[in-house]
Amino acid sequence: MANKVIASLQKLFGRQTPRKFHSAVILAAGSGVRFGNTEGKHMTIVEGIPVLARSVMAFEACPAVDEIIVVTRKEDLETCRNLLSGITKLTNVVAGGETRQQSAKLGFDAINPASELVSIHDAARCLVTPELITLVAEQASLHGAAAAAEKTIDTVKRADKNGIITETLDREYIWMVKTPQTFLADMYRAASYMAERDGVNATDDCALVERLGFKVKLVECGWENLKITYPEDVYRAKLILDMRREREKEEVAYADRTRI
Question: Is the pLDDT confidence value at 9 over 50?
């Protein structure tokens, strides 16, 4: 709704807000220990396409994205460059660090100096869509920071170390945060460097800007934004892709009927 209001005002007064140069940092430097694959889960094939390639292709197809940086393991640099040789927005493939946070910072350090907006995305979330990337980027432009997230439908409990329930949380306010997570570049730059200075290690980029007092807008992404973590997730990904194809067929059939 806010975007429509802004667009209307711009049209009325004949002014357009300059589009922000948008960099995407895609993280594929994990060890794949939980997946049980020494090659890394980013090389796992889902319907003939490696997980990493699927993620990168979504950002390639997104009009809101200007450049892509991929962060991977040092031993995978050449393999990734060859795999992604046809990606026109790819500007760099860099080696990651020992932690996810270090890898994200190394990727961020490689973006275009003129970049005003940066998205951090886990390559393992290979079912991300250009539409979701755009939605998160739009909200980050409005609020400074935004992240894809799924609102929980389950009852959530807090427990002690022995698994005994200590509290029932109100699920109305519980979200499962995913990626992409998008930030104004200057905000993320300050947050990542201050985290490094303070010795803070986080598995979530939102946490870095939250600790500085910045607000993050959550964007509902639903349950289809799956992360490939375990071998069985490959089958779940295939089911989601099948479902999307069926949905597209139904939409086309409906459109054909309405034209009659």
Answer: no
3 state SS for the chain: CHHHHHHHHHHHHCCCCCCCCEEEEEEECCCCCCCCCCCCHHHCEECCEEHHHHHHHHHHCCCCCCEEEEEECHHHHHHHHHHCCCCCCEEEEEECCCCHHHHHHHHHHCCCCCCCEEEEEECCCCCCCHHHHHHHHHHHHHHCEEEEEEECCCCEEEECCCCCEEEEECHHHCEEEEEEEEEEHHHHHHHHHHHHHHCCCCCCHHHHHHCCCCCCEEEECCCCCCCCCCCHHHHHHHHHHHHHHHHHHHHHHHHHHHHC
Over its C-alpha atoms, the chain yields an Rg (Å, rounded) of 19
Query: Which residue shows structure tokens 């109100």?
Result: 170
Rounded CA-CA distance 44/123 in Å is: 11
Q: Which residue has the tokens 């390559």?
A: 123
C-alpha–C-alpha distance, residues 176 and 206, integer Å: 12
Q: What is the pLDDT of residues 210-248, one digit of tens each?
A: 999 999 999 999 999 999 999 999 999 999 999 999 999
Task: Give the whole-angstrom CA distance, residue 207 versus residue 80.
Answer: 29
Give which of 158, 171, 210, 167 is closest to 188, Cα–Cα.
210
